[in-house]
């Protein structure tokens, strides 16, 4: 299968690989996918008090496009508000990486990971406010 | 690991453009001696072997019969028991449909195994559409067939059984002597797909209780597009021709014979007969080296029995690494992966699934197949490449992280999408 | 061996340029086109390039080309494959078809089909009226060869196709002897399926194709790995397919030269035959330009062919596939030729490399041998 240069670049040199402290109240974690489906994406974002994403890390079990999709979104997320992050669409990811139709699901997974991470941080904030 | 090799592992290398070939089970390069023998027959000695009236035809016919003898010799058969085909796929189709159709009055039940090549499975499925019934037996986790399960599957109307000698994906060797004897006791015609076996295991059809056996040239350093079917004469096995026409091959298979390809197959099988024993020793040594090297990596699983197996094949699953990214990572070697991603659907190997491997392990498998031209350097490179890339991919893998943290992945509730 | 080869309808010598195109796939490490690594991908690219060459040469789309191992297989595939997806019906084929059409067609009778031969006239031209009458019974398949391997007669395929289509039948043509000798254009012929073969056009043995309109529902003959869009399983014979592609390209490029050259040779040859009191079959019909099929009463074709062979000329007594038998040609019998005369039939088929000098030499030898054989038989009698 022919991969775009951008996919290959992210695959060969993935950005922001790793994990943040999941117990940190400022860290939201999104884990989506399933091993049986061939993709598991874990995205962690660190959000400061003004709602800006300061840091983003990922680990991905999946094909080159899945790795590239998650690597790309960690770049995009840094500096954005969680609302802006929530608005990222899979089509933007697919377009940026020139994903072929059979790999569009990788961008969908990346969008889901962002939404899951944002939901997690919002849940943490809500729990904190409630407390 | 030396610094230079480390650089290669991380940045790729000249092997990315000219990978090391470790996919001998998919196809083998033509042995230069085979090519040398073939070339005159497409340049000087052209002729239609069925043309009896002029010397162009005679030379071709003589070459064809010499080749038939070489093929017969490798498997200790009579040359008259060898029918040329366009390849193992046609041999399997001809054997199974040909025998099933000819003997259908005796019964319409067929037994085969879920790990057979598609050319057997799909042919049996086609016969099912035509009114036959079939039992597809699952092998044991080792890849080997349980003889008791085979016996239990036999019905009074069982007419044909088809079991491969050497599996193409995992290299395990079935006990076809035992299976054949059971077939004999029950009056069942026994077909064996030996496409992956020639030149790797000794085959003695004078002793083996096998009625029909399929061969391929291009898996044994011969050309593509040519194969053969063994059809036993004593006791005589009959098959219904699947291709009609000029009545070549004693009516069993029509179509102009590709003389140079037949010559190539004969020469390939001659070399196999003469060099097999020595070659197997060398290949076993390389396989052991590769196996030892790869087993130093954590969480690797060999698929299929290691004892009842040809040394040419090593099929290994690398846990917590996804199959397609694994294939992307190992561009420096040409291997086959367990995820046959030929189409949009990423479907794990049906053979590994039949062994009871999980989808994840099936996806993360690689078939290394070693052959005549594999060197020690190739194996060394492969080991260091695999180690480096597996490390890198696991560093990326959330599953590996969880495994290392002691999480039981089977207990995790995945947000499947 | 310095025989003059005059049997180009049986098989042809490999063109040097074809051989050169094949060598990398025969000598170097070539992958399985199904494999995803670079060895496999380059083999796949080579197969697809050849597919485009084949399509271009016969006026088809690349997606309509299904590679097979032989013309025999492609013909069997067309008949059995199309029939398998039709309810029991009728198949019609000409009385001069190759056995790889007529035998599978007859075999359909075992599964309840009507299987009927359509006759030909004294020149070997299909009896259109008989076809039209036969088509009054519901018919699924009509198969008529474009050019006959023995007489070289060319059928009016567009007319046959039109009549067959109007009657709702699928129309197949065996164009193995047409390709490279006359213009062969799949779309213009208006057929649903067409067989072509490599080794008749200076390509290698082991490659052929069925050109198929994708609207035709067909069952594969070979089941397995799902190559050729699932219609023909089996690892692709990469070297032969590459050679076939190149041979197709050359055949079309050389067509005009081939036509005028072999026509000139045959005209000279048949002019020379006039003094020998032989019968030239289909002499007044439209034929492929390289073929001359003739007979001499009182001399067995087989005997003459053997005698000519000793003198260094390779010709045929009939189609190569039935050379084993001494039965007279079924093509000639269908044309109403008396069996005794038919037994005397000899086929000469020229190629691009034959020369006028060879024709002259051959005529001299032929005359001498005929004379010698006549004396022998008269002494015996």
From TrEMBL, chain A:
Residues 2-126 form the NIF system FeS cluster assembly NifU N-terminal domain. GO terms for molecular function: iron ion binding; iron-sulfur cluster binding. GO terms for biological process: iron-sulfur cluster assembly. It comes from the Bacteria. One of its GO terms (cellular component) is cytoplasm. PANTHER family: IRON-SULFUR CLUSTER ASSEMBLY ENZYME NIFU HOMOLOG (PTHR10093). NCBIfam families: iscU. Belongs to the NifU family. A scaffold on which IscS assembles Fe-S clusters. It is likely that Fe-S cluster coordination is flexible as the role of this complex is to build and then hand off Fe-S clusters. This is Iron-sulfur cluster assembly scaffold protein IscU. It comes from Methylotenera oryzisoli. The lineage of its organism: Bacteria, Pseudomonadati, Pseudomonadota, Betaproteobacteria, Nitrosomonadales.
């Amino acid at each position: 299968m022919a991969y775009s240069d951008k996919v290959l670049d992210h695959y060969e040199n993935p950005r922001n690989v790793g994990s943040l402290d999941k117990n940190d109240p400022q860290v939201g974690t999104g884990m989506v996918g399933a091993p049986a489906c061939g993709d598991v994406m874990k995205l962690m974002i660190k959000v400061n008090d003004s709602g800006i994403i300061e840091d983003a890390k990922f680990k991905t079990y999946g094909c080159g496009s899945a790795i590239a999709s998650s690597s790309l979104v960690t770049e995009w997320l840094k500096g954005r508000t969680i609302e802006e992050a929530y608005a990222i669409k899979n089509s933007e990811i697919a377009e940026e990486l020139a994903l072929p139709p059979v790999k569009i699901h990788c961008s969908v997974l990346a969008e889901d990971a962002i939404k899951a991470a944002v939901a997690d941080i919002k849940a943490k904030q809500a729990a904190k406010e409630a407390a | 690991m030396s610094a230079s090799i480390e650089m290669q592992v991380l940045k790729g290398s000249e092997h990315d453009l000219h990978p090391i070939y470790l996919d001998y089970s998919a196809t083998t390069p033509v042995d230069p001696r085979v090519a040398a023998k073939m070339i005159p027959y497409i340049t000087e000695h052209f002729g239609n072997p069925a043309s009896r009236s002029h010397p162009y035809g005679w030379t071709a016919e003589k070459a064809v019969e010499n080749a038939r003898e070489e093929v017969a010799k490798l498997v200790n058969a009579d040359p008259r028991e060898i029918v040329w085909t366009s390849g193992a796929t046609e041999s399997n189709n001809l054997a199974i449909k040909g025998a099933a159709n000819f003997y259908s009055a005796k019964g319409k039940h067929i037994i085969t195994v879920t790990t057979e090549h598609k050319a057997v499975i799909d042919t049996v499925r086609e016969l099912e559409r035509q009114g036959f019934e079939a039992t597809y037996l699952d092998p044991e986790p080792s890849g080997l067939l349980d003889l008791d399960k085979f016996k239990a599957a036999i019905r009074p109307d069982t007419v044909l059984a088809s079991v491969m000698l050497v599996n193409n994906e995992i290299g395990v060797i079935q006990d076809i002597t035992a299976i054949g004897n059971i077939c004999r006791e029950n009056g069942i015609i026994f077909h064996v797909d030996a496409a992956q076996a020639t030149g790797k295991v000794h085959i003695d059809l004078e002793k083996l209780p096998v009625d029909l056996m399929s061969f391929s040239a291009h898996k044994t350093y011969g050309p593509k597009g040519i194969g053969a079917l063994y059809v036993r004469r004593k006791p005589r096995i009959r098959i219904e021709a699947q291709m009609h026409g000029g009545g070549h091959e004693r009516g069993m298979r029509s179509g102009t014979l590709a003389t140079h390809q037949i010559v190539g197959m004969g020469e390939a099988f001659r070399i196999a007969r003469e060099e097999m024993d020595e070659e197997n020793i060398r290949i076993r040594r390389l396989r052991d080296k590769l196996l030892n090297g790869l087993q130093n990596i954590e969480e690797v699983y060999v698929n299929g029995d290691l004892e009842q197996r040809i040394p040419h094949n090593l099929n290994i699953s690398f846990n917590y690494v996804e199959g397609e990214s694994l294939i992307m990572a190992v561009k420096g070697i040409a291997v086959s992966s367990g995820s046959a991603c030929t189409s949009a659907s990423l479907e794990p190997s049906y053979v590994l699934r039949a062994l009871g491997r999980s989808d994840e392990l099936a996806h993360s498998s690689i078939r290394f197949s070693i052959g005549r031209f594999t060197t020690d350097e190739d194996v060394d490179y492969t080991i260091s490449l695999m180690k480096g890339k597996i490390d890198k991919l696991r560093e990326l893998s959330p599953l590996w992280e969880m495994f290392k943290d002691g999480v039981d992945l089977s207990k995790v509730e995945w947000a499947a999408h | 061996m310095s025989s003059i080869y005059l049997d180009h309808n049986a098989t042809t010598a490999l063109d040097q340029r074809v051989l050169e195109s094949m060598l990398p796939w025969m000598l170097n490490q070539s992958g399985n086109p199904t494999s995803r690594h670079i060895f496999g991908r380059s083999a796949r690219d080579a197969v697809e390039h050849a597919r485009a060459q084949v399509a271009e040469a016969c006026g088809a789309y690349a997606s309509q080309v299904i590679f097979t191992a032989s013309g025999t297989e492609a013909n069997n595939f067309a008949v059995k494959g199309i029939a398998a997806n039709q309810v029991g019906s009728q198949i019609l084929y000409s009385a001069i078809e190759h056995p790889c059409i007529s035998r599978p067609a007859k075999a359909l009778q075992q599964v309840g089909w009507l299987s009927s031969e359509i006759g030909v006239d004294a020149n070997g031209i299909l009896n259109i009226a008989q076809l039209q009458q036969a088509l009054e019974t519901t018919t699924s398949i009509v198969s008529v060869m474009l050019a006959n391997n023995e007489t070289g007669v060319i059928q009016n395929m567009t007319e046959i196709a039109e009549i067959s289509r109007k009657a709702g039948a699928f129309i197949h043509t065996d164009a193995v002897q047409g390709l490279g000798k006359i213009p062969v254009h799949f779309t213009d012929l208006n057929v649903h399926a067409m067989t072509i073969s490599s080794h008749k056009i200076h390509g290698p043995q082991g490659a052929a194709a069925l050109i198929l309109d994708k609207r035709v529902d067909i069952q594969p003959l070979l089941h397995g790995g799902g190559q050729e869009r699932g219609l023909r399983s089996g690892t692709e014979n990469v070297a032969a397919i590459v050679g076939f592609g190149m041979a197709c390209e050359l055949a079309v490029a050389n067509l005009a030269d081939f036509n005028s050259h072999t026509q000139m040779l045959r005209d000279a040859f048949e002019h020379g035959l006039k003094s020998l009191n032989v019968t030239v079959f289909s002499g007044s019909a439209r034929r492929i330009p390289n073929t001359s099929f003739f007979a001499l009463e009182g001399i067995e074709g087989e005997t003459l062919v053997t005698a000519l062979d000793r003198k260094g000329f390779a010709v045929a007594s009939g189609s190569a596939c039935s050379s084993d038998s001494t039965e007279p040609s079924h093509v000639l019998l269908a044309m109403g030729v008396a069996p005794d005369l038919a037994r005397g039939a000899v086929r000469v088929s020229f190629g691009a490399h034959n020369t006028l000098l060879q024709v002259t030499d051959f005529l001299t030898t032929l005359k001498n041998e005929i004379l010698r054989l006549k004396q022998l038989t008269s002494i015996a009698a």
